[in-house]
Design goal:
Blueprint (H helix, E strand, L loop, with lengths): L1 E5 L6 E7 L9 H12 L7 H4 L4 E5 L1 E2 L2 E2 L4 E6 L7 H4 L26 H8 L5 H7 L4 H17 L3 E9 L2 E2 L10 H9 L8 H16 L6 E8 L15 H10 L4 E6 L17 E4 L3 E4 L7 E2 L2 E2 L4 E7 L10 E3 L6 E3 L10 H23 L5 H16 L2
Antiparallel strand pairs: 1-2, 2-6, 3-6, 4-5, 7-8, 7-9, 9-15, 10-15, 11-12, 13-14, 16-17
Helix pairs in contact: 1-6, 1-10, 4-5, 6-10, 9-10
Keywords: Amino-acid biosynthesis, Aromatic amino acid biosynthesis, FAD, Flavoprotein, FMN, Lyase, NADP
Cofactor: FMNH2
Enzyme class: lyase
Amino acid sequence: MRYLTAGESHGPQLTTIIEGLPSLLSITAEKINHDLKRRQGGHGRGRRMQIETDTVEIVAGVRHGQTLGSPVALVVTNDDWKHWTKIMGAEPLADDINPEDIKRQISRPRPGHADLVGGMKYGHRDLRNVLERSSARETTVRVAVGSVAKALLNELGISIVAHVTEIVGIKADTSLIEGKTADEIRAIVEADPCYCVDPEASAKMVEAIDEAKKAGDSIGGVVEVIVEGMPAGVGSYVHYDRKLDAKLAAAMLSINAFKGVEFGLGFEMARRKGSEVHDEIIWSDEDGYTRATNRLGGLEGGMSTGMPIVVRGVMKPIPTLYKPLQSVDIETKEPFKASVERSDSCAVPAASVVAEHVIAWEIANAILEQFHSDQLPQLKAQIDEHRQYTKGF
């Protein structure tokens, strides 16, 4: 599978086209909209979330609720576009209008954003041309794409859920989810303001977010994605670009403001001996091959082991601050405080939703690379056969 997205933060719409989905997969706007609403939620979100109510329109590739096998096109309209039609319009400027008179031009790049380097790369003196596309607004349709991928994974017996494990040093007690299914974890997460499984930690996170907002500052954190029901042997060890963990890591780091990724014990492995890191292999008639532990996060040699895949990503504090950092005006070269756009004091809860969906896409894509099928029933049969094969290997 593959997909492309198009659209600017204050443009008329965000668009995506997905190619390679099997036919006969059930897809509804209602389910996608549920995931889009979650992306807009979470404590710490800014005023933009009050302006936009993201809903998807399925405009191609689906008939009567089922995919056709042809490309699927999704559109999310930007409600705020009506206030930006002259600023962001696609039509050339009239001859009697000076481009420098267009409102909301930006010449003061924000530290930590793509503004300055993006302007250098594409030759934009008005840095709005950079920030409109580099904005995390684009993750809206990436969540929509991931929601479609989750529909496919659900048909294959694979569940995925994300939650917040840390915000500004406040760590959740993740032992609270031991023994719980992905659906049980989701029920807890969706009822929590910080999308956290630990209510005590969540309350402290809310306080920290409110303090950061009051101070005009921002804070970051860590999110965790768990994938259950993954067949063993998806991915490959034979070449670098076929390793599943590499693909998942790239997907996580492709999310705006994400700067680190780890699997299982992650960086804790550097502080442990090998006997405290690797997962012993066991076998039973009922379950086939499993692991006594899951310290490696469900991945060995670039392949899924059949254990839950556990991947975490670290999100830096959002660099748009209401007490801006120093920057330089690219026109005058004089020092100034950076420009301020609408922003969040903390987007870690929302980012956990994005992480869930970009990981879902990579998992679904890896499966379709390995189990080729144009029709969903054929794909399900292949997966069932593979599971039986690996169980009795």
